[in-house]
Design goal:
The structure is a single chain. This protein is of the alpha+beta class. The protein is 19% helix and 33% strand. It is built from 14 helices and 39 strands. The strands form nine sheets. An eight-stranded mixed sheet has the order 32-33-35-34-36-37-38-39, with helices on both faces. Strands 3, 4, 5, 6 and 7 form a five-stranded antiparallel sheet that branches. Strands 8-9-10-11 form a four-stranded antiparallel sheet. Helix 2 packs across helix 14. The radius of gyration is 26 Å and the shape is globular. 49% of the residues are buried. The N terminus is likely disordered.
């Protein structure tokens, strides 16, 4: 075991930082629902002349971004201890990362990144005791490290594999095929942000989804490809823009149909035997409509006929498995905590659904996987994993024994009881176990050696009251034996949205923080999925302020309990969590000394106009609606900056190639806060870093990850008083 090392850090007493580059104010005034608003930095959005491609980067905005990036680098790169910290993080990033195996036929497929590799390499093994063989090495395909394998999907017998690749974080995957036995690539190449659905039973074709226009995030189409043909000849089963196909008999108005076009849209789940197709249409982040289609009839007639299962009810769907003419489906429709139902494909209406695994009032069903004769239900029990096993009639087979308290997930195959369990916690490296679900036998398959001592830290879960009295759970991670003297540097992290759960996970790169006395707190805010659909709904739309209140209450509890104080407390979040961090700095600037807002949404009055953001209108609402405008305006971080306020130091980050959240949010917010803050920029600067080689964060190569982690850690260490002689 590598000896834990502390970082020698020097004083900042004599350091004087330059002011940020000046940003020209070009006010645009408009009236929205009777309220006059002025936006001084709309020009930083870019070119908005094309309604289908808003916010295109202009040379002027690029030049401004370069100046901001140069300022940020001059600050972060010159901080004492930066080099030592980056070297330590690089060492920790050399820890191997191993993916959970999937099994097809007699072949085992998995990914592994070792040492200084920028991207994970994909391997195949013939038989459990066979020799590992490299299938795909993106480090060889693109030595720059910027090309990522987004997904892989072997066919049923493992003889062929489909995979998607994208570059520089744009997530616009192109599909390719490979013969697994020979390792040779086929001629197929399908562009368009492709996601894979299902192979045909004979392996001669497959179903997939792609965007027909990369500049239009709402142009998805579900298609079928026959190997050896050009993708332009592929059959289209349905398209997002053909909204009437799904709702022709629903009696919806043109306006309602137009709104549905810009939700997450349609998706398909074909059966493995090629007979049935379950079709869903996301009506929001908490609702989905479902149909069933007979693929045999489609092949005979060329017409896809949808038979309605359920429409107009709240709830989501998860794991699905066809067993002949029966569909087993995980859903929260009619069950906020989730259930598994059995559906007769010939009579699929919701009134005929049968509970196989009924809703549990105390546990939240997060995922479902299907093995031979066994259904594995992945529950959250107070934000920690519990896996219960059932047969296909719903009879309980007991719980799967887990290595401890943490987060786990299964990889199963429906033709065997062999499965692989991935498990981790804050103080337990991600480990993979080979398990037999029928017997319970388990053996360690892979666990990386980490150059840290996990036993040095302790993890506990606490509960605290939010503003309205709701009890919120929070994980606390820190070195054993810390004193509750109110003086511990603490990072509070949260997300609070989209039914996404914050559960325990291991991060070796957090250990320099723990080694130097830092506390890490992860709050399970409303809006997430930790406690079911009701928990999610309590933090969306008009209830969004609950999320911010929960985070503020977490900060106040940490102070009251003696963990920290405002001068030693930071808050961080990314994406929807970046919005959270932005709300913290505008709503309670007195409560924090450092804020990291990564790839954030911040201008909530205009967010829906850019990239794929109309997908999120059901989660946040839209300022186009007069009632929703009121509550969005009340919390939108960009619109709640107050000139003359002593703001804490803030680091905004964004990706120039982000296809989810436009970098305009970070650009505009940074400019506005730099102009508004009354704090000394030499001590509490407002920094912006826009990564020109990245997107929302997915697929980022190792060397860029090292830089980003070092940026964020040294920024927090500086601002929370950890840089010392």
């Amino acid at each position: 075991m590598h000896r834990a090392t502390s970082i020698v850090l020097l004083t900042l007493a004599t350091r004087v930082l330059a002011a940020p580059p000046a940003t020209e104010s070009r006010p645009v005034t408009e009236t929205i629902h009777g309220v006059e608003l002025t936006d001084p930095y709309r020009w930083l959005e870019g070119d908005n002349s094309d309604p289908q491609n808003m916010g295109r980067l202009t040379p002027e905005v690029a030049s401004w971004t370069d100046a901001q990036n140069a300022y940020t680098r001059s600050v972060l790169d010159s901080l004492p201890g930066r080099k030592a910290l980056e070297e330590r993080i690089a060492e920790l990033m050399e820890v191997p990362s191993i993916g959970t195996p999937t099994v097809y036929g007699n072949r085992y497929f998995y990914a592994k990144r070792e040492g200084t590799q920028n991207q994970a390499v994909y391997f195949v093994r013939d038989g459990i005791d066979g020799q590992d063989r490299v299938l795909l090495d993106p480090n060889q395909i693109d030595p720059s490290g910027l090309t990522t394998i987004a997904w892989t999907q072997p066919n049923h017998d493992g003889s062929m594999i489909a995979f998607g690749m994208y570059r520089s974080g744009d997530e616009n995957s192109t599909l390719y095929l490979m013969d697994v036995t020979t390792g040779k690539w086929l001629a197929e190449e399908i562009p368009g942000k492709v996601s894979f659905s299902q192979w045909d039973p004979d392996g001669r074709g497959f179903f997939y989804e792609r965007l027909e226009d990369l500049d239009n995030a709402y142009s998805s189409a579900f298609k079928h490809h026959t190997i050896g043909t050009h993708h332009s000849q592929d059959l289209t089963l349905f398209r997002q823009q053909d909204i009437e196909f799904f709702y022709k008999d629903a009696g919806y108005s043109a306006e309602q149909l137009s709104q549905l076009k810009t939700t997450w849209g349609p998706f398909g789940m074909p059966s493995k035997d090629g007979r049935w197709l379950a079709v869903g249409y996301w009506t929001g982040t908490a609702g989905v409509d479902l149909w069933i289609a007979d693929l045999d009839k489609w092949r005979r007639t060329g017409s896809l006929e949808l038979v309605e299962m359920v429409r107009g009810q709240n709830g989501r769907v998860g794991g699905a498995h066809f067993d002949g003419d029966r569909l087993y489906l995980q859903t929260s429709i009619g069950a906020p905590n989730g259930r598994v139902v059995r559906i007769d494909c010939h009579n699929p209406s919701i009134e005929r659904w049968q509970d196989v695994i009924p809703e549990d009032s105390k546990l939240v069903l997060q995922g479902t996987s299907f093995a031979r004769g066994i259904i594995a239900a992945d529950y959250l029990d107070q934000a920690k994993t519990r896996i219960a096993l059932f047969d296909y009639s719903g009879k309980s087979l007991g719980d799967l024994k887990l290595p401890g308290i943490g987060s786990g997930g299964l990889s199963t195959s429906d033709d065997r009881t062999e499965a692989f369990l991935a498990f981790s916690s804050y103080n337990m490296p991600r480990s993979i176990y080979r398990v037999d679900l029928a017997t319970g036998e388990s053996s360690l398959w892979a666990r990386p050696d980490v150059p840290v001592d996990p036993s040095m830290i302790e993890v506990k879960q606490v509960w605290y009251p939010s503003k309205d009295g709701t009890q919120i759970s929070m994980f606390l991670v820190h070195k054993k034996g810390i004193k509750l003297d109110g003086n511990n540097p603490t990072i509070l992290y949260g997300y609070g949205g989209f039914d996404i759960s914050m559960t325990p996970s291991f991060s070796s790169t957090m250990f320099p923080w723990y080694e130097n006395g830092g506390v890490y707190a992860v709050a399970n805010l409303r809006g997430g999925g930790e406690y079911g659909a009701a928990w999610h709904e309590a933090g969306m739309l008009e209830n969004k302020q609950n999320v911010f209140d929960d985070c503020i209450a977490a900060a106040e509890w940490l102070i009251q309990q003696g963990y920290t104080n405002p001068s030693r407390l930071g808050v961080a979040g990314g994406s929807n969590g970046g919005l959270l961090a932005g709300a913290m700095v505008t709503q309670r600037p007195d409560l924090f000394s450092a804020v990291i807002s990564a790839v954030p949404l911040l201008d909530m009055l205009r967010y829906q106009n850019f990239l794929m953001a109309r997908y999120w209108v059901p989660e946040y609402g839209t300022a186009e609606d007069p009632q929703q405008f009121k509550y969005i305006r009340a919390y939108s971080p960009y619109h709640n900056i107050k000139p003359g306020t002593k703001y804490p130091a803030v680091l905004f980050t964004a990706g120039e190639n982000d296809t989810r959240v436009h970098p305009l949010h970070a650009r505009k917010m940074a400019a506005a806060m730099q102009a508004a803050t009354a704090s000394d920029p030499a001590k509490e600067p407002i920094l912006l870093w826009v990564d020109r080689d990245a997107g929302h964060g997915q697929g980022k190569p190792r060397h860029l990850q090292i830089r980003d982690i070092a940026d964020q850690r040294i920024f927090m260490m500086w601002q929370l008083g950890m840089l010392r002689e």
